[in-house]
Amino acid sequence: MARRSLRHLAGPRGALRGLTSKQPKVVALGGGMGLSASLTALRRITGDLTAVVTVADDGGSSGRLRDELGVLPPGDLRKALAALCGDDEWGRTWAQVIQHRFESRGELHEHAVGNLLIVALWEQLGDHVQALDLVGKLLGAHGRVLPMSAVPLELRASVRGHDPARPEELSTVRGQATVALTRGEVQEVHLVPADPPAVPEAVQAVLDADWVVLGPGSWFSSVIPHLLVPELLEALTETKARKVLSLNLAPQPGETDGFSPQRHLEVLGRHAPKLTFDVVLADQDAVPDQDSLSEAADQLGGKVELAPVAAAGGAPRHDPELLAAAYDRIFRMHGRIGPWR
Fold it and tell me: Do residues 327 and 244 make contact, with C-beta atoms less than 8 angstroms apart?
């Protein structure tokens, strides 16, 4: 298909209107609903926000587009863009549009509008980053969305007890969607290809950041994969930015069943032994053993910050306002790299 420039197109509203350069440069890494929760909170406290998104999804609409067209899975990128939409009528409308899924008896069934839009622009422009920037302008997004790699990735996991009849046997489970719901205990994960190239803009964003936020999200399928991209891990290790590791509110059924908060830190540390964090953020009601979590955080070079970040109602879901308040307090109290505020 012939590619033509769409650079002249732009949304009628600026993504970062009214925000100043005095705010911190923040990079948030992850995928799925966990990253969406973090972005929804962070866009309330900074206008200089970049999301770096995993690209190993192989299920649903994303998986079908990936298989049929050989493209990056767009689903987690779409969710991140929706999370960055504003709370005004323009933002709410576009968030609903790109999240809308078709219902039909044909091939369009369950495809998300935003997935099709993103893939269409990739084909038109031949540039992942330029296309996502253009979607962000259309939506009036309060930040930028980047893929962590420009090649589709397959997630593989080593799982103990995947076959209930052989509880001690190690099996290899393939695919992000399968890993997320696997039986047994995930021991480690790796990517195929093993040394994928990072998107240069994502690496540079990490190096230029004041703060980097990793998590919350599906630990093995959305959080740890960022640490398996060598150039991205090197940037995370070398950046002068301060780093926050944001924990989940509860273990994820299948993937991290039975994991304590400190166990999450231990498995992350095994995948990236040289990576350190300044702060580990956890909900105060989701940590039954604060001493053990503090010891695990100390192994990563960090300090635990407990805060009420869960939404009311009992479901394991972050409250955007409470999470924003927690991030804002951390950014203010744990040292400032840039001249914001």
Answer: yes
- C-alpha distances out from residue 67 to 36, 146, 196, Å: 25, 21, 19
Token look-up 């590791």 returns: 245
Two structure tokens written together for 156: 């593989």
> CA 123, 110, 154: angle at the middle one, nearest 5?
60
Instruction: Indicate the pairing of strand 185-192 with strand 154-160.
Output: antiparallel
Cβ-based burial of 38 (10 A; exposed 0-12, middle 13-18, buried ≥19)? buried
Tell me how far apart the alpha carbons of residues 207 and 190 are, in angstroms, rounded to a whole number. Answer: 24
Residue with tokens 């650079």: 7
Choose among 94, 84, 72: nearest CA to 36: 84
Alpha-carbon gap, residue 314 to 120, rounded angstroms = 39
Is cis: bond before 225, omega within 30 of 0? no
Query: Taking Cα atoms as reference points, which of 44, 37, 28 lies closest to residue 325?
Result: 44
Q: What is the CA radius of gyration of the chain?
A: 19
Q: Which of 237, 226, 235 is nearest to 273 (CA)?
A: 237
CA dist., res. 93 & res. 116, Å (int): 17
> How far are the Cα atoms of 39, 86, 143 from residue 14, in angstroms, in the given order?
18, 11, 11
Dmax over CA atoms of the chain, in Å, equals 60
Q: Tell me the pLDDT tens digit for each residue of 287-332.
A: 999 999 999 999 999 999 999 999 998 889 999 999 999 999 999 9
pLDDT tens-digit map of 183-192: 888 999 999 9
Global pTM value:
0.90
> Shortest CA distance to 133 belongs to which of 66, 72, 50?
50
Instruction: Please give the residue that has the higher pLDDT: either 17 or 107.
Output: 107
In this structure, which long-range contacts are made by residues 333-337, counting pairs with CB atoms below 8 Å and at least 24 apart in sequence? 334/242, 334/278, 334/279, 334/303, 335/242, 335/278, 336/24, 336/210, 337/24, 337/210, 337/211, 337/240, 337/241, 337/242
Q: For 1-35, what is each residue's pLDDT tens digit?
A: 344 444 343 333 333 334 444 789 999 999 999 99
